[in-house]
Task: inverse folding
């Protein structure tokens, strides 16, 4: 895996207004933490073989300077989804499902996950991926 540019923290600077209140904020921040963890631990390296089960856009056979960012996003979103298949995920799901506003809580969690992935990926530049 390539070295990555360090960030100043792993929480968003701003929580979207729709998720600022009470449990929604907690759900958003839980999603953010989840998305950040997945994004910073699934960094591809130029030359890696592209895994067909996560490449839903047709990037080719190998990671290149031209497709590394898009493949990083594919890996990260697949990792975020796949991590929900294991028992630790059940605790988070139970916490959200136990809330009266669980549908809105899921929306907040999903938004936090997606925003964290986007924010983490935005910190990578060419040198982070080993592009000269």
Result:
């Amino acid at each position: 895996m390539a070295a990555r540019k360090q960030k100043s923290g792993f929480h968003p600077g701003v929580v979207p207004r729709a998720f600022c209140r009470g449990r929604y904020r907690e759900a958003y921040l839980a999603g953010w933490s989840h998305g950040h963890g997945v994004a910073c631990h699934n960094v591809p390296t130029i030359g890696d073989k592209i895994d067909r089960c996560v490449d839903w856009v047709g990037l080719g056979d190998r990671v290149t300077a031209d497709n590394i960012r898009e493949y990083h996003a594919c890996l990260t979103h697949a990792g975020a989804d796949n991590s929900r298949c294991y028992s630790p995920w059940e605790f988070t799901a139970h916490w959200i499902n136990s809330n009266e506003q669980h549908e809105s809580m899921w929306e907040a969690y999903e938004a936090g996950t997606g925003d964290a992935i986007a924010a983490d990926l935005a910190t990578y530049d060419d040198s982070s991926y080993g592009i000269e």
